Structure formats: C-alpha cells, structure tokens
C-alpha cells in the first residue's frame, strides 16, 4: 500500500506541488484567524484562588484589568477633563480620581493624609483606570491605545495590562525578523555542509510549507501564546530539518539502483517514512510531555510543536519529493564540496582512549547536575522586557514617585460588619511593604450612612455581596518579600472571611512559582520515561535507552548549568522547555550513532572497528543537523529584545552544540565500554532478525542498477 502511494506521488509530482500551494490559502486564513495571547499569567490553573479572584473581578466588578496613570506637572483641571474622556473610551469600566470625591475648588490639603498619599506625590498625581475585559483581550489592548492617544507626554500609563500591550507590539515587530534570520542562517549552514547549492533552497521551501500548515491549523486551538508563536516556526525548522536531509540522503543512495529517478524517489519515500515515523516519535514525546504541565502554557507549546513535527514528517514524505524531482537538474548541476572533514583519525583517537572519555562522562554528571539545579530563575515577566518601553518607564515612575511596584486585589464578603472591615484594613496596612489601601470604608468611613455614598463609588468597591479592596505594595512581583507579604495578607483576610481571595499580578506570580516548580519535575520525568520506552522498543533493549538518555541528559545538565556558571538569571519556563525539547530533538543524534554501531556489529565487525565506522559515518549527519538547529535559534537569541524568547533560543542553540559534542566525543566510548552489557540486555543486538534479513536480500536482488547520481 505504501509503495503504491509513493509511486503515485512521484508520478504526479506536479499535481502534488499544485495542491501544496493551494493549501497555503486556508493556512494563511487559519494563521490570521488564530488569536495570540500575550498574558502568560492567564495560563495558570483555574482552581487557584488567584485565578478565581480574577474571574470575580471580571464578572462581578467589571474590573478584569487595572492600570495606573501617572500625570506629572499638570493642573488638576487637565486631569479631571482627561478622566472624563477616559471613562468614555470603549472597554473602560471606570476611571477613579480625586475629583469624584472632592470638588476641585476645595484645597487638597484638607484631604485625609492616607487618601492624599494614594492620589498625590510631590511631583504628580495618579488615576486608577479599570477595564471590562481581561488585560490581554483585544478590547483592552485597543482601550489602552486610545487612552495613550488622549494623553500628552507628561502622562505615563502603568500596569500589567500595559506591559502586555507593549509585549504584543514588540513581539509583532520582531517576529518577521526572527523567521528571516533563522532561514538565512539555516540556509548558510546547509550550504556549507551539503554538496548542492540549490539543495538548501529546496529544503527551506519544504519546511516552509510545513511551518505554514502548522500555523494555519492552530486555528483549531482558538489561540496560542506569543511565546509559542515566536518560537514555533524556528523550532519546527530546527528539529524537522533532519527528516528532510534523511530523505535527500536516501534518494542519493537509491538513484544508482533504478533507471528512473521517480522509482528511486518512491523507494526513498518508503524507507524514509518507515524510519522517520519511528525517529520522530522521540521528538513528539518530548513536546507532548509539556502538555502535562499544570501551567497551560506548556500544553500550548507542546500541542503546537508536536503537531508541527507530525506535519513536518508528512511534508517530507509527500511534498518534499515533488520539490526534489522538480529541481533535480539544477541540484545536480550546481555542486560543491562539503566543508565537513573526514573524522576517521579523530574517532580512532577517541576509541584508543575510550576509558578516558568514559571517566570524563562519569565525572561530569554530578557537577553538571548540581549546576543546572542551582541556576537562578526569574518569574516577573516585566524583567524580560527592555527598560526603554513606555510601560517600563511608567512602572519606574510608579515605584519612584508613589513607591508602588505592584497591586493586590482582595475580595471579601460585603456582609462583614463595618467595624470588622475597618479592623481588617488596619491590619492590612500594618503588613510590611504595604504603601496604601483603597477600600470602601477607607473612602467613606463607618460613620457615614451607606445611602449617602454615590453609586459610582459603590460600584467600584461593592457589588453582588462582595467587596473589593485594592492594596498597593512597595515590592515587585516574584520577590521573596512580596511572597511573604501575600502570605501575611492571606492569613489576615481568611481570619475574617474563609472564602476571601487575593489576586493580582503578585498573587498570580506567586502561584506561578509554585506551579512551575512542580511542572519542571513532572514534565522531565514524563519526557524521560516516554523516550526511554520509545528507544527501548526501537532497539529491543533495556540498557540502550538508559545509555542514550543518560548521554543527552548530561548534555542538558551542561547546557542549563552553563547559565549557573556564568551567573545568568533565566526565565522560569526555560529549564522545563529545554529539558523536554533538547532531549526529544537531540536524542536522535545518539540513536543515529547507536543504529549504525549495531549495523556494523551485525555485519561481522568487532566492537572497536564497528564503533569507529559508526562514529565516522554518523558524525557528518550529527554536525549538519546540530548546525541547522543552532543557526535557526542562535540568530533569534542575538536580535530578540524579549528576554524570555532570547533565553529559550540561546539555550536551544547551545543545547544543539553540546548534544552534538557529547554524541561525537563521549557516546562512542560509552557504547564501546557497555557493548557486552548491551548484548546481554538486548534482543538481536549482534545478529539481524532472520525475516528482516531475508526481506532485505530480496529487495536488493530485485533492484535495477543505474549510473544516475545527484
């Protein structure tokens, strides 16, 4: 069946290309229609109090997002007029300033000191703006743009929603550059490691189609995160280029056996599909392991990238053959020598000193593990953005002029007696790092009858039996001091109302820290277990998967540990993503080496000669593959101004090189030293299964030699 399908594809390759081009139309529509989520905190588990609190703010108080507008050196009348204009902006639920509580003709000096401190500093005044929909929604993004348009250069809009807006704008500007740089550098890598100048163009066209199909099918997910969107195309290019190169190499091998190049390609398709369907499973498993993160960002990246690998394999066996046949003549005409040298002498040296490399492997494990487990991480997403962004400048204004670095939102029952509410507010104000508290009783006091309070003030603070209290903190999110502060606040509000909740950027970031710590352990365990199982089934072995995974895990430890040794602080998501992706994508290097080692043993070579031949044969493919992944990600790490994307791409680039070095210099020695153990714990390690060998000989007898070559 597969042979017939392959023959049909190669006989109608013009039709295949036409269909592939037509499929770009729905892919473009799907990609445009897929919403991009720039709020990573929205991926927190929905059963956490901070997430539940956000839902209450959105549904009950129509305050799904809050921003602070700092206005420097402007008269109060300007601020009052601006507030009225802002309240008319679609998507804004309220804009709170002092003119709603006090006539502007009354001197502000008569205000209670704590109220005055909330809205005034020596140099400026502050307005609190609330929105109907979540901070990352399109409506809120448009509202923020309109508010900025209403303001002059003396106004600074701050808050997590504004940071999200600036992240969106920066990411959208940079993303096309990521793709262009990745494509150019990958083509350069392929141009110098292959022997045909036209081949890199053909490979990029094939992978480009797969990337387009992947981005288009994301519409079925509804939305993807901006991190996923930024790295999906680059990662897909880096991790699936191996499959394309494998098909090309197989085609080159098959051409001398057939008089018709289309038959050679059909044979290559069959061989490639069988091999790639197994090889790609490790990469897919690495990505799918991310789906087990409680932080749903992992599932977002995992599904998109696993889908990308599947589409990459299908594109390689269905569309790339048509491209190769279409460009076959120029590929043969424009050729050059590969720069990859012969590694025979180097590998002979490694084999002679294999005990030294085995000892090096064992000695590196412990310090590399220690280094990677002690690397410093940050969880405050604002730290990943340039200081020159308007939101970062405004955040600095909030800190320096109002000593506010973050805002907590507390939701309690409105049925609490007034004296308990006042008592609770006093305790909240006494917590270390609390700068100001904005609550219903803070504005009006327990002595003023409720019916005398304007409805607009009530709606901001009290609704549907719940009361919202806004607490401004001097501490930045993710700091130990902020987390301890949140614990203290939680203890206070729960003592008055067991159903009370605290939310906001600080509380959600605290939950993010706790969630990410567990996620890292779970996803790594799942990815390792899955790949151990897949490799074990492929080799019918107990020991081989342990050896191969241990080699790549050492590579991961070294990769992440380098950040510890250099003193770098990395985003929290990086170790989890790197652990799964580097293992899934680069274990193929080790599989390639081990497969050739087994093949040479089955051909009757002794183990020293077998590993020497295997290493020399596998090294060029490992170098070519790792260089493509390195080039696809390193360029992005250099140009990106978003540190979370920069960090992930830098570590992926570094991981590709480290995995390649371990596979080339250490793995052959470990395989040689362990060959006796492998033979005892593996089925058919040194002898091919009889049925498979008979089938191989039969295929060889039925082949038709020809002199054609690429």
Shape: elongated
Helical residue percent?
55-70%
Contiguous runs where pLDDT drops below 50 for at least 5 residues: 700-710
Structural class: alpha+beta
What is the alpha-carbon Rg in Å?
A: 31 Å
The percentage of residues in β strands lies in 5-15%
First and last CA, distance: 28 Å
> If you average the pLDDT, what whole number results?
84
How many strands appear in the DSSP assignment? 13
Number of helix segments? Answer: 26
The major sheet is characterized as: 5 strands, antiparallel
Structure in words:
- The strands form 4 sheets. Strands 8, 9, 10, 11 and 12 form a 5-stranded antiparallel beta sheet that branches. A 4-stranded antiparallel beta sheet has the order 3-4-2-5. Strands 1-6 form a two-stranded parallel sheet.
- The two termini are 28 Å apart.
- Helix 1 packs across helix 10.
- The longest helix is centred in the C-terminal third of the chain and has 39 residues, at 643-681.
- Residues 700-710 have low confidence and may be disordered.
- It has helices spanning 2-11, 13-33, 49-59, 76-87, 113-119, 138-150, 160-193, 199-217, 226-254, 261-289, 296-318, 320-326, 328-333, 344-352, 354-373, 390-402, 418-429, 440-444, 455-461, 480-496, 505-539, 543-566, 573-602, 607-639, 643-681, 690-701, and strands spanning 35-37, 65-72, 92-96, 124-131, 155-158, 223-225, 376-378, 406-413, 434-438, 462-463, 466-473, 501-503, 569-571.
- It contains 26 helices and 13 strands.
- With 710 residues, it is of the alpha+beta class.
């Amino acid at each position: 069946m597969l042979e017939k399908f392959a023959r049909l594809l190669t006989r109608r390759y013009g039709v295949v290309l036409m269909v592939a081009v037509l499929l770009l139309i729905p892919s473009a529509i799907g990609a445009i229609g897929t919403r991009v989520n720039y709020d990573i905190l929205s991926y927190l588990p929905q059963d956490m109090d901070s997430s539940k609190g956000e839902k209450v703010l959105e549904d009950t108080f129509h305050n799904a997002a809050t921003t602070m507008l700092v206005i420097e050196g402007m008269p109060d009348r300007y601020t009052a007029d601006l507030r009225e204009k802002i309240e008319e902006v679609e998507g804004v639920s309220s804009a709170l300033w002092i003119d709603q509580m006090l006539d502007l003709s009354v001197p502000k000096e008569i205000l209670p000191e704590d109220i005055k401190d909330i809205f005034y500093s020596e140099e400026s005044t502050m307005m609190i703006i609330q929105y109907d929909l979540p901070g990352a929604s399109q409506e809120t993004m448009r509202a923020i743009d309109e508010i900025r348009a209403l303001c002059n250069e003396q106004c600074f809009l701050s808050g997590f929603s504004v940071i999200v807006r600036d992240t969106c704008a920066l990411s959208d500007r940079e993303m096309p550059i990521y793709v262009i740089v990745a494509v150019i550098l990958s083509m350069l890598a392929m141009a110098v490691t292959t022997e045909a100048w036209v081949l890199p163009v053909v490979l990029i066209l094939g992978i480009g189609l797969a990337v387009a199909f992947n981005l288009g099918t994301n519409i079925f997910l509804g939305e993807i995160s901006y991190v996923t969107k930024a790295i999906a195309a680059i990662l897909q290019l880096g991790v699936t280029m191996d499959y394309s190169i494998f098909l090309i190499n197989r085609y080159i091998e098959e051409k001398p056996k057939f008089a018709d190049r289309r038959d050679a390609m059909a044979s290559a398709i069959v061989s490639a599909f069988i091999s790639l369907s197994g090889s790609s499973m490790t990469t897919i498993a690495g990505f799918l392991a991310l789906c087990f993160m409680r932080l749903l960002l992992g599932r977002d990246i995992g599904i998109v990238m696993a889908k990308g690998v599947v589409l990459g394999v299908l594109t390689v066996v269905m569309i790339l053959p048509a491209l190769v046949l279409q460009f076959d003549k120029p590929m043969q005409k424009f050729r050059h020598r590969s720069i990859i040298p012969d590694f025979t002498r180097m590998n002979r040296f490694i084999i002679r000193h294999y005990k030294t490399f085995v000892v090096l492997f064992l000695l590196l494990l412990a310090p590399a593990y220690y280094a990677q487990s002690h690397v410093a991480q940050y969880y405050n997403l604002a730290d990943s953005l340039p200081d020159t962004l308007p939101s970062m400048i405004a955040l600095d204004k909030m800190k320096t002029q109002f000593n506010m670095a973050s805002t907590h939102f507390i939701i309690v029952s409105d049925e609490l007696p007034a004296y308990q509410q006042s008592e609770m507010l006093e305790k909240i104000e006494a917590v270390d790092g609390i700068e100001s508290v904005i609550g219903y009783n803070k504005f009006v006091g327990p002595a003023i009858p409720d019916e005398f309070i304007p409805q607009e003030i009530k709606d901001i603070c009290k609704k549907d039996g719940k009361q919202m209290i806004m607490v401004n903190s001097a501490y930045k999110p993710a700091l130990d001091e902020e987390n301890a502060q949140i614990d203290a606040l939680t203890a206070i509000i729960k003592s008055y109302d067991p159903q009370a909740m605290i939310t906001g950027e600080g509380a959600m970031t605290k939950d993010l820290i706790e969630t990410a710590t567990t996620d890292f352990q779970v996803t790594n365990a799942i990815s390792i277990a899955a790949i151990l199982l897949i490799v074990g089934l492929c080799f019918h072995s107990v020991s081989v998967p342990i050896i191969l995974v241990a080699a790549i895990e050492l590579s991961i430890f070294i990769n992440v540990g380098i950040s510890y040794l250099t003193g770098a602080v990395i985003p929290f998501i990086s170790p989890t993503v790197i652990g799964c992706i580097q293992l899934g994508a680069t274990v193929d290097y080790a599989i390639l080496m081990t497969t050739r080692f087994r093949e040479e043993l089955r051909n009757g070579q002794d183990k020293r000669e077998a590993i020497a031949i295997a290493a020399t044969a596998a090294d060029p493919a490992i170098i070519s593959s790792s260089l493509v992944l390195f080039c696809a990600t390193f360029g992005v790490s250099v140009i990106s101004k978003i540190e979370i994307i920069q960090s992930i791409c830098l570590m992926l680039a570094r991981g590709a090189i480290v995995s390649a070095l371990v596979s080339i210099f250490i793995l052959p020695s470990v395989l040689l030293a362990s060959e006796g153990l492998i033979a005892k714990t593996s089925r058919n390690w040194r002898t091919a299964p009889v049925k498979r060998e008979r089938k191989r000989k039969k295929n060889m007898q039925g082949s038709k030699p020809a002199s054609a070559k690429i």
